[in-house]
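Entry 12.
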Amino acid sequence: MDAFSSDDADESTGTRPNFIGKVVASAVESEEERFQTQYENDIDVLYEIEALEEDWDNVFELGVNVRQSIGSKWMVLVGHLENIHGPDDVRGFESLEEMLDFLQGRVYEFKEQDFTADEEFTFKYKGDGHTINFEDTFGDLENPPNSMMLPIREVTDADELADLGVETEAATEEVEF
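Predicted 3D structure (tokens):
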């Protein structure tokens, strides 16, 4: 392969493939210098994800702001969480810290969502369901949002978790002999 020739280049959205990962850290406000930016954010580190089936360094979703618009990255995240866990769990959070505590230690399949892609997402619990198209919603913006790591399903099957090397509480109970 010639790194300086477009002949062998593949077409790609520029996003990574879906992967299974465990949320290992989050912080509304991080004291770590590497997470400090010139921009003010509501959440400094939404999640640090340990990729369980890939040989990657940890993946981060940083600098998230809370917005009430259905056409915002925040509401797309909330919609994904509602679709996975149900609206009662998600709408019951009383603070950003409580939401991040809820996510801590959970294993999800993550998708890196390109917000300018011609893809649809349905908010199952907004009224009778509400669907947006990312390209229609964000594509014409002067500065469309960057992609975002979104959970698309929670991995809770004990066998699947064991295959990924994740110990569950049931597997770590002490047994007396």
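Annotation: The two ends are 59 Å apart (CA to CA). Residues 73-85 form the longest helix (13 residues).
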